[in-house]
Amino acid sequence: MAYRRSLVRRAVALTTAATAAVVLAACGSSDSSSSSPAPARSGHDTGSVHPSGTASAGSHDPQDVSFAQGMIPHHRQAVAMAGLAASRAKSPQVKDLAAKIKQAQDPEINTMSGWLKAWGEKVPGDGGTGMESMPGMDHSASPMPGMMSDQDMGKLKGLSGDAFDKAFLQMMISHHQGAIEMARTEQAKGAYGPAKAMAKSIVTSQSAEITEMDKMLGKQ
Prior knowledge:
The chain is an all-alpha fold. About 70% of the residues lie in helices and about 0% in strands. The chain has a domain at about 60-115 and about 145-215: Ferritin, core subunit, four-helix bundle (Ferritin, Up-down Bundle).
């Protein structure tokens, strides 16, 4: 009988010890989770872009600002030229090309404007004289290569049919060559990744369009 009571006491003691171990383990787990450091941010989170997708200040250099401020009016003039093709061009190929140019460059204008606003820099045409953003102004003294003068734009507006197609292609080739020159400068001297990526895209896409326009003019 005494032997049986001893076995019962031993079983109770073992059960009590096991229960205490489980409680202590649970408490230790709780303390560990409450004191553990917050997970580290991914190495890709550089802070250079806000959650809204706009560029943040401090992630660019003066060349990036110059690129955006120059390319915005440059693109605006190309869009203005492309807009004339719908009612003046004869060739369906010219009309299609003009539509493609407008479709590509309008969003880039918006993107570059967003960068400049995020950087606290002036967006061409937003206040001030805004002269640099006017599609038909005289850019003879402008540092932006490939821009058309007032006279060039006036001539293009006065043409239609085959004459318009030829003038449009010739002017747009020069315009694209200027944009490519500006983009290559950004690729070489810029610091802001998205701006350099856009510059690369401009070089690629507009070089291909120059080849396409040369074929339309019978140069290839």
